[in-house]
Amino acid sequence: xxxxxxxxxxxxxxxxEVLGAGGAIWGMSEVWHMxxxxxxxxxxxxxxxxxxxxxxxxxxxxxxxFRYSSPSGLKTAIVxxxxxxxxxxxxxxxxxxxxCLELLGFCLGFFLQWVxEVLGAGGACWGMSEVWNLxxxxxxxxxxNDDFRWVANTVFTVAIFRMAQKYCPDHSxxxxxxxxxxxxxxxxxNMNQGGDASANVGTQMTEMNGxxxxxxxx
Length: 218
Fold this sequence. Notes:
The chain is mainly α. It folds into 2 domains: 2-178, no CATH class; 187-218. Helices cover 80% and strands 0% of the residues. The protein contains 8 helices and no strands. Helix 1 (2-31) runs antiparallel to helix 2 (42-67) and helix 5 (96-131) runs antiparallel to helix 6 (141-165). The longest helix has 38 residues, at 180-217. The chain is globular and about 60 Å long.
């Protein structure tokens, strides 16, 4: 059973992190009038942007490959560039030629992080809105496209702030934005701890009252 879920997981990982990388370039380039029907050369601009979309697709495949490699500074720089930055002040931080190699990996990782998490956010809204006939649909395809450009750009902007939070010092506000599921779990833990503390206080008060009554009896 686990192998089935593993195959599904790898497929979705490939869809999100590899196909999604190329699709983000393709989608937001249309939002920004860099290709497609609103460009002066619709067909030519589409053909032109197939090249960068495929290049970023390949880069996304390299990044996914590193997910399955052994732990190393280079892997962290490519897969989790924010963690690589935060680890630079540690004793185990790389130096010299290895640091230069990791720095190149960081540039790749940071770029792909921006593509997947920022461009990808706006591009996802743009793509699925067409799938669901919310735009580019008769009788006013041009008007509906223009209406949804502000949606894609708004989500793109919010995603910029979200990505920036990854490079900020740890804080519950950033956890709520970056890992809302962990933030919810932390609330449950705090509530449980609060309940345990209240129970302990109640027990202690009962014991104190009991002792007080014994003293009075004496």
